[in-house]
Amino acid sequence: MSPLVITLLIVGGIVILITIAYINNLVENNKLEKARLKADLTDRVRRLAEASEGLPGQFMTPALKLMLSNLQVHFLERLLLLDRGNAALKRQLDDLRQQIALGDSIPVRNPPQKIIAEARAKDVRFQLENLHNLITRCAKDGVLGTNEAKLWVLEIRHMLVMLHIELFTNIGMQAVQSNQPGPARLAFERGVQYLRKQPDPTRYQAPLQKLEAQLARANAMVVDMGKPAAEDNSELIDGLKALDSDDDWKKKSLYD
Q1: Residue 228 burial class via C-beta count within 10 angstroms: exposed 0-12, middle 13-18, buried 19 and up
Q2: Cα–Cα distance, 39 to 165 (Å, whole number)
Q3: Average pLDDT score over residue span 31-44
Q4: Which of 112, 143, 164 is the last residue of a domain?
Q5: How far, in Å, CA of 256 to CA of 139, rounded?
Q6: CB atoms within 10 A of CB 229
Q7: Reported confidence tier of residue 243, pLDDT bands at 50, 70, 90
Q8: Residue 64 in contact with residue 87, Cβ under 8 Å?
Q9: Alpha helices (H) in 178-233, listed in sequence order
Q10: How many CB atoms lie within 10 A of CB 109?
Q11: Which residues are CB-contacts of 121 (< 8 A; sequence separation ≥ 6)?
């Protein structure tokens, strides 16, 4: 065998080895990308489902349920392309499609939850933040129209205001019923201050007037009892101030 043939065989072998290594690398990268995409889609479906099923009933509407269901269908369809044999995903997709077909009659089974504790209010606020993040990301990815996303962001901000109204009102009324006018006055006062800071105060004129009336009654109770407000109730003060603080996420524009 001539030296030329031997050289060609060696070169050919090297080329084959390089080609095999390149193909293996491509296959491995494709597997990693598929796994990454699958994990991302699974997480988005999970978070959408949690928002759809977990929000208290007073914050869930048929329109919101429909929007969340449509987004779930979109991501489930993409997920099934990566996992075609997943029967559980197919059942979930079929169930969502049946619900979406009902339109505005889509069932809303979220039970209302009374917001009377600061910890529970923080949980709901976290749910609203999660919903806000899901919507803005879907808008950036082109899954949700920009104008529709902006409307939902405004609606989520409204839900946040209603959450604070409910919390301050319930804490204040609970204190009144317990004959504690000091903490009651504090709760109503924080509610009044919170609503007066809203960029559209006219929208919340009715609940503002109601809180102002409750604050006046609490003040009268304090005077009648001859006791100052419970200034030493630091735990309640800190909790209310924490919930009353401006949320950075709700101030951001859609694409910030």
Answers
A1: exposed
A2: 38
A3: 87
A4: 112
A5: 12
A6: 16
A7: low
A8: no
A9: 181-196, 205-225
A10: 9
A11: 115, 163, 164, 167, 243
Q: Over the stretch 135-170, which tens digit does the pLDDT of each residue have?
A: 999 999 999 999 999 999 999 999 999 999 999 999
Distance CA 168, CA 189 (A): 9
Structural domain range at position 76: 1-112
179: left (phi over 0), alpha (psi -120 to 50) or beta: left
Verify that 105 and 149 share a domain, yes or no.
no
Q: Are residues 24 and 75 in the same domain?
A: yes
Q: Residue 91 — very low, low, confident or very high, per pLDDT cuts 50/70/90?
A: very high
List CB contacts of 200: < 8 A, sequence separation 6 or more. none
Q: Are residues 64 and 5 in the same domain?
A: yes
Tokens of 115: 């917001």
Distance CA 97, CA 72 (A): 10
Q: Could you identify the residue written with the tokens 């000091």?
A: 182
Which distant-in-sequence residues (6+ apart) come within 8 Å of 86 by Cβ?
A: 79, 80
Number of domains in the chain: 2
- Residue 1: band (very low, low, confident or very high) from pLDDT cuts 50, 70, 90: low
CA dihedral 41, 42, 45, 46 (to 10 degrees): -150
- Is residue 122 domain-shared with residue 249, that is, in the same domain? yes
pTM of the model: 0.77
Exposed, middle or buried, 41 (CB in 10 Å: 0-12/13-18/19+)? buried
- Condensed to tens digits (0 to 9), the pLDDT of residues 229-239 reads 444 455 566 66
For range 73-99, the mean pLDDT? 93
Question: Mutual orientation of helices 234-244 and 118-140 as an angle, nearest 10°?
Answer: 10
The residue from 112, 144, 171 where one domain ends is 112
**pLDDT reading at 253 higher than 60:** no
